[in-house]
Each structure stands twice: as structure tokens, then as C-alpha cells.
Design a protein that fits this description.
Radius of gyration: 17 Å
CATH superfamily: DnaA, N-terminal domain
Number of helices: 5
Oligomer: single chain
Number of strands: 3
């Protein structure tokens, strides 16, 4: 006879399911921590859209933000490394969001 496990809190169960279902790519890892690592204000104007050979491409709402974030690249990479360790991108590339 097997024992029933104690029930888990719903929040913890949802977190585990989300982690298991999430793609295991560098881009997905960055997207999962983006708002937390950069803060809500920066995350509202910049969205990670692709990753290739260690470079993360980020769409920005306009050219001013793209330039500003490019100047902050070192700080942003540090924040991402703090959250992702080895899975953090090596470089960031900022561009104006397509369709704007």
C-alpha cells in the first residue's frame, strides 16, 4: 500500500508545471527572468526576441531606448548573469521593434 503525499500549495504546483512545460532554450531562460532582472520599467520598453551564438536580440519601442540600453549593456548583462549564471547571454543587440 502506498501512502498519499501531502497536498502542495497551488502556487508551488503551478510553478513546477510551468518550469516543466517551458522550452529549455537560452531565449526561454532569459524571457523567464527578464522583468525580474531588468525591472518593470525597462522590461516595458524592451523585449527579448531571439538568441543566436550567445547574442540576445532585444526589440525596443524606439531608437532612443535602443541606444540607451546599448549603453547600459554591461550592467544588464551583469543582472542577467546574476539570475542565469552560465545560461546568460554573452552579448546583447538592441534594435527598434519591427512594425513601429
Amino acid at each position: 500500500m502506498t501512502r498519499r503525499r501531502a497536498p502542495r500549495q497551488a502556487g508551488e504546483a503551478f510553478r513546477l508545471v510551468r518550469e516543466q512545460a517551458a522550452p529549455k532554450t537560452g531565449l526561454a531562460a532569459v524571457q523567464a527572468v527578464w522583468s525580474e532582472a531588468l525591472g518593470e520599467r525597462l522590461a516595458a520598453v524592451a523585449t527579448p526576441v531571439s538568441e543566436r551564438a550567445g547574442t540576445l536580440t532585444v526589440d525596443c519601442v524606439d531608437g532612443v531606448w535602443a541606444q540607451e540600453l546599448d549603453l547600459m549593456q554591461g550592467q544588464l548583462l551583469e543582472r542577467l548573469r546574476g539570475r542565469l549564471g552560465e545560461r546568460a547571454p554573452a552579448a546583447l543587440r538592441f534594435r527598434v521593434e519591427r512594425g513601429r
